[in-house]
Amino acid sequence: MFKKPLSPAGLTTREITYIAICAVLLTACSWISIPTVVPFTLQTFGVFLVLLLLGGRRGFLAILTFILLGAVGAPVFANFSGGIGILFGSTGGYIIGFLFTALIYWALERVIDGKPVLQIAALVLGLAVCYTFGTAWFMVVYARQSGPIGLATALGWCVLPFIVPDLVKLGLAWALSAVLKKHVNL
Hints:
The protein has a single domain, classed as Arp2/3 complex 21 kDa subunit ARPC3 (Orthogonal Bundle). Helix content is 73%, strand content 2%. Helix 6 (116-146) crosses helix 7 (151-158). The chain is mostly helical. It contains 8 helices and 2 strands. The protein has a two-stranded antiparallel sheet. The mean pLDDT is 93.
């Protein structure tokens, strides 16, 4: 019998295609933004949807692809920006934090076993780690550029305004993924 052709990473052509499509989805989600100190975007919605559709491993690869495209200058980030300077800028920690969300989801995937409550809990935990990493990064970069700020100020600028919208995005991503899984052969 013929085996499915595999890439060096052990991925089928179909999986690579889905990873690429999801990297594009993340790009489109980042372009929809309301500019603030940390822009309101649909990136977290995209991250949640990608992980729920592709799972941890392939979702991680889609997010990594998105970040690497931005790092080399492709305008995939908020406000059609790209380049390594964005990743090393004050909001770069949140973008890199998406990888931690994916790693946590991937690590808990066997425990989750398709259970909706556990999927949501894993994504909330990943989001909390993303917030933590991103806020620490923001404080360091902001201190270098403008002077030190307190944790309460950083949380007030970068986390508190985003909690409720991100939880709404999580719920919408979960609902949409349930519908899409019925129509897409992943």
